[in-house]
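DM from R.C. (forwarded with permission)

"hey, sorry to bug you on a friday — could you get me a structure for this? deadline for the figure draft is monday and I only need the backbone to look sensible"
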Amino acid sequence: MKKLLAITALSAALFFGQTAAAEEKAAEEVKPSHVEMVLVLDESGSMSNLTNDTIGGFNSMIEKEKKLDVDAHVTTVLFNDQYKMLYNRRELKDVRKMTDKDYTPGGMTALLDAVGRTIHKMDMVAGIHRKDKGNKVLFVIITDGEENDSKEYTYADVKKLIKDRQENAGWEFIFLGANIDAAAEAENLGIDRDRAVKYKNTGSGVRANFMAVAELSDSLAKSGRVSDEWKSQVEEDTDENVMAAPADTKEHAAPPAKPVKKHLVSKVRKAK
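My reply, with the result:
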C-alpha cells in the first residue's frame, strides 16, 4: 500500500511539474517584445489626392499604438524619386503628429531604392539581427503604384536583402499595394504572398492600411508573431473597420464646393 501511495505521489509530482513547465513555456512565448516598426510610405505624385487621408491615418495609427502601450521604436521613410526619413527609430511616445508640411506628394516611384536603403540603415541597429523573442522587426511597405525610378537597387538586390532578413533574422515584411497585383509584386521583392494585400485606392482604403499596421505591431509585441487575421483589416474595408481621422486633420480637408447661383444657371441656359 505504501509503495502504491509513493508511486501515486511521484506520478502526481511529475504531472504537475510538467504542467507548470508547459505553462511557464507558454507564458514565455507570449511575453511582450520590443518592436522595431519600419514604415516605408509612398509619397509619389499619384498619392496627392489621398494626402489628407494618409496624414490622418498615420496619426490615428500612432495614437492607437500609444494607447495600446506598444513597446516600439518607429522609423518612417517617405519616398518618391527622393528619399526622406521622417522618423529615425523614434520612441513611440515621442513620435509627433505628421502634418502636410511633412507629407507632400510629388514625383516618381523609386520603390526599390527606398526599400534597399532602409534595410541597410536598419542593419546598423545593434542586435537587429538577433532572431529571438526580445527584438521583433515589422517592416511595412505601402505604395499605390509600380516601381519606375530606382537607380541604386534592382529587384534581385532587394529580393536577396529581404529573403536574408526573413530567414536569418526573423524580420516580418508586409506589402500593401494599390493599383497593382500586390501579391505578385510582393513575390518580386521576396515577400511571401500571404504577407501581401491589395488595398482600395480610396481614403477609407488608406486609413484601413494604417489600422492594420497598428494591429500588426500590437500582435507582434504581445505574441511574438503576426496574426493570420491581419489582412481582414484591409480586405473588409468597411465603415466599421476603418479608423476615423483625428479632429485636427480637418484643417487639411478640401473646402466644400460652392453652390451655383440660380441666375448664373439661367444665363447659361439662355446662352445655349
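R.C.: lifesaver. Confidence is low (pLDDT under 50) at residues 22-30, 238-272.
me: no worries. The chain has eight helices and six strands.
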